[in-house]
Amino acid sequence: MCAMSQSTEPSSLLYSQSTSLAMRTTIQGLRMKFPSVKNVTTVTLQNWIDGGPTVPDSGASAESSRKENTKKLIIIDTRPELEYSVSHIAESINVNFETEDMDRVKKLMLQDINYDSPDDSPGVRVVLYCSVGYRSSVLADKLQQATKPDPAYKHWHFFNLEGSLFKWANENRPMVDQQGLPTDKIHPFNSLWGKLVDKHRWKSTP
């Protein structure tokens, strides 16, 4: 029994460390590929969802942190509907990253926070996620470009969720299925990228 335990634990630990290293490498690569897209950590997003304090940037004043906390929060899942139906962050809206209809996305965002126009709100945070962050960075970049010329969006801020839903799931953060019920399962995208999420969570159909 003892020998079996000793041989199993290092293997599990090695898998966990390998996954963590691969995730960090992926996050860094996406930051380089999308330099204009701001990122937010899973810890900070959880705090925003819970209504607690943000994790301020170095040098941020208490007043600026307080102002950040008054902003509305929109969460966008940029994966196809099948992946979204397996699991997603509660209250996130589903917008496929391939869409080019930014006017439709703007309307969906306003509906989500119950505003008629973007300048009705003093500030809005929009956090986008996918499996690891590529697709969400693509849509975040599109939204930044689409809203930049409009002064009504001056105080809107778009973020990619660092590590996206794979990192969120690996940290045992809450997700729901298509019925809105808690789940720990997640669509692996494919067998290659799925290596970045704990395999016992894999589920390819709702």
TrEMBL record:
InterPro entries hit by this protein: Rhodanese-like_dom (IPR001763), Rhodanese-like_dom_sf (IPR036873)
Pfam family, one: Rhodanese
Stretches assigned to the Rhodanese domain: 69-177
Lineage of origin: Eukaryota, Metazoa, Echinodermata, Eleutherozoa, Asterozoa
Organism: Acanthaster planci
Protein name per UniProt: Uncharacterized protein LOC110978656 isoform X1
